[in-house]
Amino acid sequence: MQPLPRWALLSSGSAPVLLVGGWAVAGALQRSGYDPLTQTISALAGYGAAYRWIMTGVMFAVGACYAATAAGLRGVAAPGRIALACGGAASVLVALSPEPAAGPTLRHTAAAVVGVVALAVWPLLASERGPAARWVLRPWLAAAVTGLCLLSALWFLVSLRGDGPAGVAERLVTGLEALWPFVVVAACVRGRR
Asked: InterPro entries recorded for this chain (predicted)?
């Protein structure tokens, strides 16, 4: 594998910190009525949200982190890097498509679905076979991570349709998807030493 640039650690490590910090700060600043257990992260950036610029800026920054991390993951299978970069672009599109107070638009929903799916499948698309494959990119682990992300995304979808904890489910899937690029980069940098 080609050496990874040090900034890949920064970009991959910043994404989960920005995402979790962003939803925590934006949620804390909301006027009464916002419930993080049942309401989505998108509601924090939607029209009518207090300080909506915080979550909007976070979504832009997280998208840029995904794209930068994809660029820094030299030597990782191109389909995985492309999927990670597409997840970043989708994050930016979500930020550019805030929810109206009445609920999500088709553009917002489409961008969110593309982002969740791209970020869920990138580990599998980046997987490597053979004795020289790094442990974080082994097919069995990549399939497990992808499966976990897709199952948590399905839980989120079911929660949106019913009366479930959609906020918890969304935070689980987005948190997992934000953390995995850092795990991969950190393992690749550590394995290089």
From this structure: DUF998 (IPR009339)
pTM: 0.92
Tokens 């679905």 correspond to what residue? 113
The contacts of residue 192 (CB under 8 Å, 6+ apart) are 1, 3, 4
Q: N- to C-terminal Cα distance for the chain?
A: 12
Amino acid at 166: A
Contact 99, 114 (CB under 8 A): no
The predicted-structure confidence for 68-88, as pLDDT tens digits, reads as follows 999 999 889 999 999 999 999
Neighbour-count burial of 34, counting CB atoms closer than 10 A to its CB (0-12 exposed, 13-18 middle, 19+ buried): middle
Q: Which two tokens stand for residue 132?
A: 């020289």
Cβ atoms of residues 88 and 63 within 8 Å: yes
